[in-house]
Each structure stands twice: as C-alpha cells, then as structure tokens.
Amino acid sequence: MSSFQSQRKKYSLKKDKFIPLELSRHIIDIMSGSRSESVNGVRLSTYAGMRVEETTCLKVGRIHFSGGEFGLEYIEIVKGAEGGAKGGRLRTIPILDKEAQNALKIAVAGKKPKDFIVVTAKGEQMGVDTVSAALCKTLKREYDDDTYKYNGCHAMRKAWVQRYYDAVREKCDKKRAIGKTNVVLGHGYNRDASGFKTYVKNMW
User: Fold this and answer.
1) Nearest of 15, 19, 11 to residue 162 by alpha carbon
2) Residue 4: exposed, middle, or buried by beta-carbon count in 10 A (0-12, 13-18, 19+)?
3) Topology (CATH) of 16-196
C-alpha cells in the first residue's frame, strides 16, 4: 500500500468515527462561549441529525414546536435553497426528547420566523465552511491526539441517526425501523443496506 493510500485509509476511518452525544454536549458548551452562531449549526446536527448545509439554510419558521413522531416537535426540510434538502426532497425530522427540544429553543431564541437560525454577526446567512471550520478548530483544540481530527457535523448526524433508529426499533420490526430511518435521513425507504450501515452500526 502506498503512503497516499495509507493516509487516505486513515482519513476515511477517522472521518467515519461517530461523535457521541456526551462529547457533542461538551463541544457545544465550548462553542457557546464564542460570539459566533456557528454553534447553532452544530446543535442542529447533534439534536436533529441535519447535514451542515441544511443547518445553514434552515429558518425558524420551519421548526414546529408541537406534534411530531414523538409528540415534541419536528423540523421541516423544504425543497430548494431555503431548505437545503439533498436532491430536492421534502422531509420532516422529529425531535427525539426534551434535551433536543431545549437545544432548539436556545438556537431560535430572539429570532423571527423568517430568520435563519445560523447567522453571521451582520445577521446574514452563515456559510457552510464557516460552521465546519469552527467545529474543526474546536475539535482539534480539545482532542490534540487527533481522535476526532477529521470529523465534522456529519459525525454528529451519524450519532443522532443511531439514537433515532433505537427509538423507532423499540416500536416496530427491524425492516420497518430501517425504512423509517432512511426516510428521516432523506434517503429512499428501500436504500441499499450497505449504505445504511455507515449510519447505523447497531441494527438490532
């Protein structure tokens, strides 16, 4: 194996590493001390499993603070640039628990329905690279052994997906739980199992 292939394999393995909820809480606490709202993007990936590009497109009015699959609330990802939905798909993301609900309330505090949740100091929509860079910088500073060096919001999304799968798996059979999870991810109901395994490691 060449040195390039070896480095690429190392990068892929570390990038695939999940960032567990307890670590995400710690990162969010640290980033909350900054004046930047990039932390709101991290909150949305942690507590709603959203892609980073979706977090920067989300507006307050797309969060519904009642109803949802678990009776708490849900986020509506819409078509087009406003929603940032991959492939133009429309989907809803249920909020799993009170901790997630509280995190969203913090993210939207003081904002109006048409406001973006992740904004710059000038109140403008924040770029994806800004959110990713802020998270990467924090991870590197806190974990200098490079355990999470190559990770970003997607690793937090993966951890959320496992939590969602566990919640629905308690209520239905494995096949339906996989299908429901694929839909929440923004994938097709019958997506190939190999792709699904990159998100859910424990398919009990």
Assistant:
1) 19
2) exposed
3) hpI Integrase; Chain A (1.10.443)
Residue 189: predicted pLDDT = 79
CA-wise closest residue to 155 among 13, 33, 15, 2? 15
| Ranges 87-91, 171-175, 183-187, 191-195, most confident | 171-175
Decide if 95 contacts 48 (C-beta within 8 A): yes
Q: What pTM did the predictor assign?
A: 0.87
Residue in 190, 37, 53, 8 with CA at minimum distance from that of residue 122: 37
* Count of CB atoms situated within 10 Å of the CB of 203: 14
Return the higher-pLDDT residue of 44 and 12: 44
Residues 47, 53, 58: CA angle, nearest 5 degrees? 65
